[in-house]
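Researcher: Please generate the 3D structure of the following complex. Treat every line as part of one assembly.
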Amino acid sequence: MSVVTVQVGQCGNQVGQEFFSVLCNDSSNAKDKLYKDCSHERFFREGPSQDLTARAILIDMEPKVINQTIAKAAKSGKWRYGDKAHFCQKQGSGNNWANGFSVHGPKYEEVVRDLVRKEVEQCDRLTGIVTMMSLAGGTGSGMGTYITQCLRDAYPHTSILNHVTWPYNTGEVIVQNYNSVLTLSHLYQFSDAILVHENDAVHKICAQLMNIKHISFNDINKVITHHLGSVLQPVYTASSSHYSRNPIGEFMSSLVNHPEYKLLSIRNIPQMSSTSLAYSVFNWPGLLRHLRQMLIANAGMEEGIDWAVRAQSASKSDRGRPTRELGFNRSLANLLILRGKDVSSAETGGFKDPALYVPWLPVESAISSWSSSVPFNGYEKSATLVSNSQSLLRSLNSTVGKAWNMFASRAYTHQYMKFGISEEDFLDSFTVLEQVISSYSQL
Amino acid sequence: MSIRRSDGGAGQITGGKISSLKARAVLVDMEEGVVNEILQGPLRDVFDSTQLITDVSGSGNNWAVGHWTYGSTYRDQIVEQVRRAAEHCDCLQCFFLIHSMGGGTGSGLGTYVLKLLEEEFPEVYRIVTSVYPSAEDDVITSPYNSILAMRALTEHADCVLPVENQSLADIVNKIRHMSHSGKGGSIIKKDSTVISSQGGVSGVEKPFDAMNNIVANLLLNITSSARFEGSLNMDLNEIAMNLVPFPRLHYLVPSLTPLYTLADVNIPTRRLDQMFSDAFSKDHQLIRADPKHSLYLACALMVRGNVQVSDLRRNIERLRPTLPFVSWNQEGWKTGLCSVPPVGHTHALLALANNTCVRPTFTELRERFTKLYRKKAHLHHYLQVEGMEQACFTEALTSLSSLIEEYSQLDATKGVCMPEAPRLNIAT
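Model: Done. Output below.
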């Protein structure tokens, strides 16, 4: 029932460390012993004196971040990383996807496979692998892609969830659009699902909901991992008496019902600073109503939602016309995860409305609902919606457009060719993503 | 001229104080004066005598002598010393070459070494810090030396950080003027200027020290992310990757802020935002150039200190509309956040701009060259050196002209609305 996490690159490792921190805090505070045990077993190895070691591998091509990450975990006193669970080099990948994918990936393949194998062997039963990386850099994006491919080969029957961080629009890395295009197009071939967090969207949440004045990457990561934790912590998926034993597998089957559609977005409500939380009361109808409109209007958070947008049933005449012009975000599938008090009384019918979905899939398979009565991460009530929808279409289109424009001038391409990525490879990647854009546009 | 790896040296630490640190460096000069001074000064323990390669008579401000005569004489010795230094590295990522363009040794022998590094260590990045002569330079042949050296820089360096003596002098004057005027409310905090050697070991200040400190601070800032932790690291190889869209266009204009910290400034955010604004002002550039009015191909911002990603975002958003970026790189920012500020500062910013504002610098240099070359002034001093031919001059000039032309073509696109490239058509 265990999940192994593979953290690659600076972002992947920073997010990963925060992830385990959230999980550990949440389950340690949980009053439900079953929940706590299930969570511990899933994400940690328990030592003889009840010390927790994360089921995780840390990979980076330079040592500073991994050292910091391991130290930060140890400082918590509540959990740590394994002693030999990391691999790093010294030279870095230079933000070069080709360097990460074509050079470092193959060069260190054996070592990485070995590390993962050793971690997997310590699981009674492996139910899924989660990878964490950014799209913008060189190691996370390039080497992370290569590693995913290896994991797919090594564990053909295990679900692999790729969590990726989409960089800020106004640049962190100049070649981030190239790196993103190369990563997404390759991952699309062998990933089960790509769960995306956009830095811009998360930044807004920090600024407007959490009221943080000087937002740091630490703040960003806390929001991201709050979302991830709300998905992956123990939960009842069917009307069964025990927590789901195959959370990642069920996650995949709920959301990815067609291989052409693998891009997932995530929304969570409520989100606020801990000081505000103490004074707030929520009810399920309110939360779900907001969440539903957030989905329909493609809002990332509960502030600034456009309530004028309405779900529109796709009629035969609409087929082929992009619905995003109408502002309405159409879904292929949704997964609703509710946690906290009175969760059994929550009315989720609003998400079963056929108008939200594509007409060519049965509505029953389009919506799944999981729940747990244990409050999550300090929130008395918390609702998360993972969607396979048109949410990411605009960002994807924008990124591909910018990358294409840059490619048209052949700017920076010599840097990639130096490490074996040719113009042909670029064109193939663009083609794959244009197809994805087209598919999602036509929902 | 020295080559140093960013990580500093291998050393021993006893009682919290580093007691034996050796620079990963090779110092080359064809005169002994400067190197001898270093060996007698407070840095004598940092360098081994084996790391020094010297001669006695100097190059007479003659690039040909530095390049061809001394190049061939000292080639093997230099290769050996560099190899030795390289072997001490766990992982050699980058060479820093520091030299001047106007003289004979730095310029001539320096570029010879650059070519040598490419041959012997092709995988290792070569970042060159070049001090360009100002128009009022007292070395008459500096235009010849500079242009001859430029060709090697264009063809064999991965990145060049050009620095002009005049700009450094202007910055020094500005700071001195500020500290001497001492008007109420504008007192400079002690040791917080970009020209101070706070944190360094030297005692008495020598001429050029203030100017050299600026360049030293440039190198400290550029390596800060490799040396210290931060939430968004920016390694040296990332600089080349992000700032060089086309192999030859690798001249990156550096600017450093703040130049100084005022003692009584009380509004942290405003000071921070001012720092970002200043990075783009022509007074802070280390060559005489105005990037704001030319075209940006790419720009890197390396921030040090207690600065968060939101501060970075806010300032990029604020300044972006005022800066012309090339059409295919409208959001071309490379950013880094290093937690540790420079000694004496709470935060600092280094900007590296790949910007067409270098064109006037190169054009002016070419004009000075042409003035001399037309009259064949001093040419015989060069041509009489074994290995030197007239072709060296013409080829160097052609190389520079074509470089200038490439920048011109990009400049021509400034302000022109370029249509977006039509996207691939996918059969549905």
